[in-house]
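Margin note: ligand = pyridoxal-5'-phosphate.
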Amino acid sequence: MKVYFDNAATTALDKEVLEAMMPYLENQYGNPSSIHSFGRETRAGIELARKTISDLLNVSPGEIFFTSGGTEANNTAIKSSISTLNLTHAITTVIEHHAVWHTLKECVRTDNIKLSEVPLKEDGHMDIDILEQLLKDNPRSFVSLMHANNEIGNLLPLGEVGELCKKYDAVFHSDTVQTMAHYRLDLQNVNIQFAACSAHKFHGPKGVGFLYISSDIKIDPLMLGGSQERNMRGGTENLYGIIGMAKAFEIAHRSMEEDTKHITAVKFHMAELLKAKIPNVEFNGDCMGDSLYTILSVSLPPTDNSEMLLFNLDIAGIAASGGSACSSGTDIGSHVLEGIKSDVNRQAIRFSFCKHNTIEEVEYCVNKLAEFVNVPQTLD
Ligand SMILES: Cc1ncc(COP(=O)(O)O)c(C=O)c1O
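Resulting structure:
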């Protein structure tokens, strides 16, 4: 049996998405900036994609800027706003994705900004009272807080943070890469200036995403070049990627309620089964509470073969991830698990789900995991 439980890393491309992209891979190849009919045709495709996405987010098409993915969207929001708006103080937490964390660290180095980290509580949620104090002490801060953490799934109260930012005149950016097309986001009615998206997290193509920039903010481009994306992002557009992303966005919204219900059931079934079969199993973060329904971060008791668990799962045909996929394949430990002070002796495995996963897959996986974990310890 082959089981793919690594959907927070990336998802399979939907067949319907591929079908929507095909004409643009085969016949409609005009440069969208060309004024002849070939170009006008592909320009129309791009603008329709923008309209599809902006309608679903309840924003204006002019507030959507296509990028090469979540990393570029986060880089643009952070670097360009800090430099264009002359901001001198930023607020974040240590468990942000590296696309945010490394970018903010770079701004500390090059733009000389001061960076404050909001402490985390034991369940991985940020202490909102300390956030308010930081905002009060440092008016006009740049705030970058992710909507859902990609390793432990903790959710941020986006609306509440947005209101606090408004109260203290802060610029609010959220890395919404794990939540776009997983929740209905009405960005018009949240006080937020920037939100990042990546298509491959919701069955769209890789290498394409967008940045929402609220119309009340004007920043300089990160990528200089041609006048594409209304002078905000030079470079010929990833035409078929954009078409595919809009289709994936539309599909996700079309069946969001039923997919959410199904995936939530898969996640909770897995948690229950793990508790029944593996003594002393725990979960990282707040996965049974304010948590993304696609992620379950499991903390396993130490065994003789802890480091082999992911490898053994892989041999059994099960794909999961230890910590963040972006760092997998390296020996560097997870900065998120470190940030929430999780026990270093326990092995963390992130299982992340999508609409294609089934209860049977969960049962197969938990049985295998129990087999590997419940290996009797050798006595020295
Ligand atoms: C929370 C978060 N932000 C940003 C990214 C980067 O997105 P992309 O792969 O599109 O550059 C990821 C991808 O793993 C992510 O999970």
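The chain has two domains: 3-11+256-373, 15-254.
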